[in-house]
Design goal:
By secondary structure, this protein is α+β, with helices and mostly antiparallel strands. It has helices at residues 6-22, 43-46, 48-58, 104-117, 159-163, 177-182, 197-204, 222-234, 238-247, 293-296, 312-323, 336-342, 367-370, 413-424, and strands at residues 64-71, 74-85, 90-91, 98-99, 138-142, 148-152, 271-273, 279-281, 309-310, 327-328, 331-332, 355-357, 362-364, 379-382, 388-392, 397-402. The chain folds into 2 domains: 6-100 and 258-301 and 311-424, DD-peptidase/beta-lactamase superfamily (Beta-lactamase, 3-Layer(aba) Sandwich), CATH 3.40.710.10; 109-240, Beta-lactamase (3-Layer(aba) Sandwich).
């Protein structure tokens, strides 16, 4: 097996860049493709990814998965293994559409930064300046007897608090959770809601939050609120804003809040495990079938926190834009300064020594504390259906990993994915 030298890989990358510039680098189309060796990987090591993922499918741990590795702007590896529907035996294809859940958050965070670049807001703004329902908020403080007191927030919530998940807003659980349940707002799933997302978000403003603003990392509805903010400031629905300002310029042709009927057959089914540990089809939300409201629901609630569907191809294009400093081809989404701000740590040590959090992304701070292969400064996140992704600027690399499972059964595939990708790097 021949492995490309560093000079060969850089020559390949230069030729790809020259060709793109010569043709005007259109935003539409596909990312270039190179061999693993030309991207600086040991071919047989990178291809071991498929073998390991097949083992997870054979063991019943996963129904299937799609993985894409992009380096220097070119696809070095793309593979689909297993099944879109493991019960029916439907093979999984690389163009399968997945529920990406919280991977929606990164896209909506980018939308907020675009509005800052437009001069329409500042992330230091009080949230109530744009969404009056949040002008005065409260916090549920636990008591020793198991109850809680509701007190005024120590300060106003800012947009930056939402971007960093330090606004104190959970998913309707914890202190004050009974009031969230009474309001019908718990959990991250919005697709079944028969009302515009703004109506749901406005009701949140009167409910007690789970922590004081700025005092902790509390993961929850922050980015759903940001989605309503985008609608208020832009004058468009979140669907229209994302489509016109991000999806169409980046040619993210299969990224939607609700699936067009003609694409229904490409939607990967949600799986889980029964008590015996067998792989089964799993409802994706309360009272929903496997395909759920993303196919046949009300189509009214655009969840900025967890509502999107996408493909590995589309999401890789979004991440490559971030890695490029805000551009892909002729499409400029953000400035390099905004990308740098989004991928810096904004939360101090609130997440522990290994990682921090930026504006929509977790950021690696300490390689040794993390205990996994990667680079200081790599950033990413994941979704509720076991999807994950990361961007490694030091290695000029994007990795997207999509599967579709919601289960109590632990799977170590994310850690194996990192070990295999970095273990295959040669230069």
């Amino acid at each position: 097996m021949r492995f490309a030298s560093s000079s060969t890989r850089w020559t390949t990358a230069l030729l790809l860049l020259t060709a793109a510039l010569a043709c005007g680098a259109p935003p539409t189309g596909e990312l270039p493709r190179v061999t693993p060796a030309d991207a600086g990987f040991a071919s047989e090591r990178l291809e071991q990814l498929g073998t390991v993922l097949e083992d997870y499918v054979t063991s019943g741990s996963l129904p299937g998965a799609v993985v894409m590795v992009v380096r220097d702007g070119a696809v070095a590896y793309e593979e689909a293994v297993g099944f879109s529907d493991a019960v029916a035996g439907t093979p999984l294809a690389t163009d399968a559409i997945f529920r990406i859940a919280s991977q929606t958050k990164a896209i909506v965070s980018v939308a907020v930064m675009m509005l800052q670049e437009d001069g329409a807001l500042l992330i230091s703004d009080r949230l109530g300046q744009h969404l009056p329902a949040f002008d005065s908020t409260t916090v549920a403080v636990p008591r020793e007897d198991g109850g809680y007191d509701v007190v005024p927030a120590n300060r106003p919530v800012t947009i930056r608090d939402l971007l960093t998940h330090t606004a104190g807003i959970g998913y309707g659980y914890g202190p004050g959770g009974d009031r969230w349940a009474e309001a019908g707002i718990t959990g991250w799933y919005f697709a079944h809601r028969d009302e515009p997302v703004r109506a749901t978000i406005d009701r949140m403003g009167a409910l007690p939050f789970q922590a004081q603003p700025g005092e902790g990392f509390v993961y929850g509805y922050a980015t759903d609120i940001l989605g309503a903010l985008v609608e208020e400031v832009s004058g468009q629905t979140l669907d229209d804003f994302l489509r016109s300002r991000i999806f169409e310029p980046l040619d993210m042709r299969d990224t939607h809040f609700y699936l067009p009927p003609e694409k229904e057959s490409r939607l990967a089914a949600v799986h889980g495990h029964n008590r015996e540990g067998d792989l089964i089809l799993s409802p994706e939300g309360p009272g929903m079938n496997t395909q759920g409201e993303y196919v046949n629901g009300p189509r009214k609630s655009f969840s900025g926190g967890a509502g999107l569907l996408s493909t590995a191809r589309d999401y890789a294009r979004f991440l490559q834009m971030m890695l490029n400093g805000g551009t892909l081809g002729d499409a400029r989404i953000l400035s390099p300064a905004s990308v740098a701000l989004m991928t810096a740590n904004h939360v101090g040590d609130l997440m522990g020594g290994a990682n921090g959090f930026g504006l929509g992304f977790q950021v690696r701070l300490d390689l040794g504390a993390a205990g996994q292969p990667g680079s200081v400064g790599d950033y990413g996140w994941g979704g509720a259906y076991h999807t994950t992704y990361w961007v490694d600027p030091a290695e000029r690399m994007v990795v997207v990993y999509f599967t579709q499972i919601s289960s109590f059964r632990p799977v170590d595939d994310h850690a194996k994915l990192r070990a295999l990708v970095y273990g295959a790097l040669e230069s």
